[in-house]
Structures are given as structure tokens and as C-alpha cells.
Amino acid sequence: EERRGGRRRGEEERGGGRRRGGEVGGEERRRGGEKKRGGVEGMIEIENPNRIVQKSKKVTQIEMDEPKTLSRREREELEKQKAKERYMKMHLAGKTDQAKADLARLAIVRKQREDAAKKKEEEKKRAAAGKAAK
């Protein structure tokens, strides 16, 4: 077969031969997933003092170990909710300006409805008196 760039033509098309890192097709998988260390790495054990090893924790440990600290957005959201609750309590008690205005408007509407009911009642009496007179 014709050779091109150190490989036979058939291997190049099929993707055969040596792969990256010097391993031959699937050697790493056959060894149980253990990576092959190359060069100095395999001979010397290096301990990096700056490397932080992540240790997995259980959910119960995380909640117990550390007091919960809120982010700025979470803290602002809580403050906003508490302020809204305080305002609603004061509003229901009638201590806010808006509540006072609402109560005044409600009193005016009640007065108008009472007056309208009185007029209607007087008209019914007049109509009944007019029919009785005939």
C-alpha cells in the first residue's frame, strides 16, 4: 500500500494506529480507568501546598457546621418583605395615610348610600299615600 506521512494509507482512513498520548486503542479502559502517568509524574509524588482538596459533605453536616449567611440580594429581599408586612399591619390598623384616606372615602360613600336609601323610602311612602288618597 502507499505510505503517506509515516502511515499506511488504509490506517489513515480508518483512524487506526497510535492515538494521542501514546496509548494504543482503548488500553486505558482495559486497566480499569486508571490514567497512565507520563514522564516525571509517575516517579515522583508531588504535594502542592496550594492545592485544596474538595471533601464531600453530607447535607446534614453542611447545615449544622456553618451558620447560614445570606447574600446581599437575599438580605434585601427579606428586608423588603418585612417592611411590606409592617406596612400592611399598620394599614389594617388604620395608622397609615392611605388607610386614613380610604376610611374617609368609605365614610362618604356610606353617607351617600344612607341618603339615597332615605329618599327611596320617602318616595315609596308618598306613592303609597297617593294611591290611598285616590
UniProtKB/TrEMBL annotation:
Bias kind Basic and acidic residues: ranges: 1-39, 113-126
Pfam families: PP28
TM spans (from-to): none
Region (Disordered) residue spans: 1-47, 113-134
InterPro entries: Casein_kinase_sb_PP28, HAP28
Domain Casein kinase substrate phosphoprotein PP28 residues, every copy: 48-125
PANTHER family named among the record's database cross-references: 28 KDA HEAT- AND ACID-STABLE PHOSPHOPROTEIN PDGF-ASSOCIATED PROTEIN
Protein name: Casein kinase substrate phosphoprotein PP28 domain-containing protein
Naturally occurring in which organism (per UniProt): Gadus morhua (Atlantic cod)
